[in-house]
Amino acid sequence: MGSPFRSRSISPMASLWPTFLVLALSASSLVNADDTSTVYEVLQEYDFPIGLLPAGVTSYEFDNSTGKFTVHLNGTCSFKIDSYELKYKSTVKGVIAKDKLSKLSGIQVKVLFLWLSIVEVTRDEDELEFSVGIASANFPVSNFVECPICGCGFDCKDVDLRKGRLSRRFSSS
């Protein structure tokens, strides 16, 4: 007569539950776009203007305890500001602290004919210093009070930004 108990093998997914639980609990300090703050409000909390990121961020993650963040855009984003051309990858990462963005990845600026990665941004009163590692440039904070729009930067005409999506209205003139 056989045993009334059947042996069951544990599925690989069941054995991962403790790992998922630990990850979920350790991620409790993470904030994302579904919570109360937008990524633009997080920038302001650390004394940065919202215009450091283009309009239309689709989501973000932020670890309040370490300052590490990841910002997701709908795709790559490029535009010109004055004589500079900027390019944002679809994912931008870094660490934020009061008046300092460091360990940045995913943002590049064209200087002459070279694309250089912006690795750090610091704020000193009313100026922002953008560092590409070997060089830096300063700009007034007031240049970044509005978010640039992918494709046209700050000089956009007939552009309407609704619900995080960009739509262009064409007018016949």
Automatic annotation (TrEMBL):
<dbReference type="InterPro" id="IPR036758">
    <property type="entry name" value="At5g01610-like"/>
</dbReference>
<feature type="signal peptide">
    <location>
        <begin position="1"/>
        <end position="33"/>
    </location>
</feature>
<keyword id="KW-0732">Signal</keyword>
<dbReference type="InterPro" id="IPR007493">
    <property type="entry name" value="DUF538"/>
</dbReference>
<protein>
    <recommendedName>
        <fullName>DUF538 domain-containing protein</fullName>
    </recommendedName>
</protein>
<dbReference type="Pfam" id="PF04398">
    <property type="entry name" value="DUF538"/>
</dbReference>
